[in-house]
Specification:
2 domains; pyridoxal phosphate binding; pyridoxal phosphate; about 40% helix; PyrdxlP-dep_Trfase_small; kynurenine-oxoglutarate transaminase activity; Aspartate Aminotransferase, domain 1; 12 strands; seven-stranded mixed β-sheet; single chain
Length: about 375
């Protein structure tokens, strides 16, 4: 017997490779996107409380009612949009599951899906596993803004879905109201769905605003909004995500979700719901991460030759070394991990064709002392 791979070109994730390399060489891991500090002890105390209280059996497939209600309240507070907790909000096992289920709900064999790249590496494989055809549209090389003419030019009768990511990973670009309105104008009269990956929704800097796609009435009726508490509450290992979508779309979403994960960890849902009684837990997150971004960027500017524009959101900072070297980004990332003892991600990992624009991505969701040590080590990097 032989097993025919459904993802023949897919290898080991670059995040696994670089994290393993960081561990092997005792390097500071600014590669994989997870916080390098513990979450609020109050949150873990709540989790322990709900475990001890006996909330350890299956949750309802769509999520516990109190958490869905909290998410509805968050959306209304942040964006002035009301989603019905009973029929329009579903709890998932992380945002990645939400993304996969949403793609599965709308993509059929031969359907084309527009992905703007650089892009999170789960989008393309999820589309291909569902028989879809990813159509990649590159973002601007300098500021990662959208080339609207190019995007509109690839839309045809086979286009079923457009995947949006704001704040953007890896670049940190944050969609503006004009971006949202432009997308709505392009697809208003077309049978095209949208998935908006908004996992960094509460991490936006310099008094900029996260303008969710749900704010546009045209897009709200076409869009699956996918997010996660992993990034918001510093608990990426809990894998508690969610999807907001109109009732008819949520109905199809839930049909698939029940056969992929069925439900998500019950005591953790209760803990998060109780923790979110205090809105400041997410409303103050941007300021918390901006301090880290500023420390990292100020250090990069003062002590390294990299060129960059400070990220508008997320907890990633991309830097260019095009003016310093012709070395490919993977080799440089490996060399920095081994020699400078700082691990990062080569940006080719976010491009289908491994386009090498001489860009690296660093995660600054770390303790400030660790960021300062990383800057000190990078200052000695030789080009």
């Amino acid at each position: 017997m032989s097993l025919i791979s459904k993802l023949p070109a897919q290898g080991t994730s670059i995040f696994t490779i670089m994290t393993h390399l960081a561990e092997e060489h005792n390097a500071i891991n600014l590669a994989q996107g997870f916080p390098g500090f513990p979450c609020d002890p109050h949150l873990t105390d709540l989790a322990a409380h709900y475990i001890k209280e006996g909330n350890n059996q299956y949750a309802p497939s769509i999520g516990i009612p109190v958490l869905r209600k909290r998410i509805s309240q968050m959306a209304e507070l942040m964006h002035g949009v009301f989603y019905k907790p009973e029929t329009e909000i579903t709890i998932t096992s992380g945002a990645t599951e939400a993304l996969y289920v949403a793609i599965t709900a709308v993509v059929k064999t031969g359907d084309e899906v527009i992905i703007m790249e650089p892009a999170y590496d789960a989008y393309g494989p999820s589309v291909r596993l569902n028989g879809g055809v990813p159509v990649y549209v590159p973002l601007d090389e300098n500021d990662f803004s959208i080339d609207w003419d190019r995007l509109e030019g690839v839309i045809n009768e086979k286009t079923t879905l457009i995947i949006v990511n704001t704040p953007h990973n890896p670049s940190g670009y944050v969609w503006k109201k004009d971006d949202v309105d432009h997308l709505a104008k392009i697809i208003s009269d077309k049978p095209i769905f949208v998935i908006s990956d908004e996992v960094y929704e509460h991490i936006v800097f310099d008094k900029k605003e996260h303008y969710s796609l749900m704010r546009n009435p045209i897009l709200r009726d076409k869009t699956f909004i996918c997010s996660s508490f992993g990034k918001t509450l510093h608990v990426t290992g809990w894998k508690i995500g969610y999807c907001l979508a109109p009732e008819k779309m949520s109905k199809e979403f839930r049909k698939i979700h029940q056969y992929i994960a069925f439900s998500t960890a019950t005591p953790l849902q209760y803990a998060i719901a109780a923790y979110l009684d205090d809105d400041s837990k997410y409303l103050e997150l941007s300021a918390f991460y901006q301090k880290k971004r500023d420390i990292f960027c100020e250090g990069l500017k003062a002590y390294t030759p990299f060129k960059f524009t400070p990220a508008e959101g997320s907890f990633f900072q991309t830097v260019s070394y095009r003016h310093l070297s012709t070395e490919n980004d993977f080799d440089l990332a490996v060399r920095l991990t081994k020699k400078a003892k700082v691990a990062c991600i080569p940006n080719t990992a976010f491009y289908k064709d491994k386009s090498d624009l001489k860009v690296l991505r660093f995660c600054f969701a770390k303790d400030e002392a660790e960021l300062e040590l990383a800057i000190s080590r990078l200052s000695y990097a030789v080009f």
